Amino acid sequence: MFRTCLIILGATLVHCQIKLEKIFEECHLQMPDFEDCLKNGMNQLNPYFREGLPDYGIEPFDPFFAEEVPFKSRMPLFNFNLILRNVTESGWTLSHVSSVKMNHNKNEVAITQSFPDKRLKGWFEFDGNILGAKVKTQGPWNLSLFDYTQTLTVSRKPAGPSAPLSHHPIKVKCNLHTCKNLELHVGNLAGGRSFLENMLDRVINAAWQPGFVILSPIINELVGTAFTDIFNRNFQTFPFSAVFPN
Ligand SMILES: *[C@@H]1O[C@H](CO)[C@@H](O)[C@H](O)[C@H]1NC(C)=O
Ligand SMILES: *[C@@H]1O[C@H](CO)[C@@H](O)[C@H](O)[C@H]1NC(C)=O
């Protein structure tokens, strides 16, 4: 009985799990449309972002959680240290890959993606100078990005004496392009003075476009850090050669 259950369970799991080899079976490095082939394959993986791909050692990453993301700004009028804590980021399941570009010389792949609705939230600790005023505060925050596009550049040092095959680190950089609208709510922005806070909240959300210059590097850092972490945790043992046989 127990064995039957195990076999049924095993069979169900096998059925539920996607075969990446199958999805990418047409993709060969020598093909002229290799990048499009990867893109089409990636766009079939969305249903698995929530559950992950345990067969390939990939944990669920929608939502993603980051315990701590530090950020520094050293612009003259915006000089601060910001620490984002307990950050969750969701929206990957609805995202769409619009292009994949390989750079073999640099061991890099650039993935451009659009998100109809991406949401982030967490806790922040802020300490610094804004327009000459000293500001030290902390509180909850949340951010929604609508019709948002970003490019993630994933690079991996080739294996060598300084980087053994199983542990050469992956680095992810995020570069956001556009965003049609955003909503940012920051709790305790003015030390609990609710009139001022409500006003600031309205100003931020009505006039976020100029402020986006400040915000976009923070989002880049946040997403880049999150994905450096995701890729390093999940793709170190990823069987690339099984998925992309040459
Ligand atoms: C972050 O989450 C941990 C674990 O749930 C909790 O102990 C900690 O107090 C949280 N930190 C903040 C700043 O919310
Ligand atoms: C977003 O943050 C604001 C300010 O802290 C809070 O009032 C609101 O409930 C939050 N919304 C969500 C969806 O977490």
UniProtKB/TrEMBL annotation:
Signal peptide: 1-16
Origin: domain of life: Eukaryota
Keywords: Biological rhythms, Signal
Matches recorded under Pfam families: JHBP
Record field: transmembrane: none
Assigned GO CC terms: extracellular space
Keyword check for Glycoprotein: no
Gene3D superfamilies (UniProt xref): Haemolymph juvenile hormone binding protein
GO biological process, one term: circadian rhythm
Keyword Signal attributed: yes
Family label: Belongs to the TO family.
PANTHER family per UniProt: CIRCADIAN CLOCK-CONTROLLED PROTEIN, PROTEIN TAKEOUT-LIKE PROTEIN
Protein name: Uncharacterized protein
Source organism (scientific name): Phyllotreta striolata (Striped flea beetle)
Upper lineage: Eukaryota, Metazoa, Ecdysozoa, Arthropoda, Hexapoda
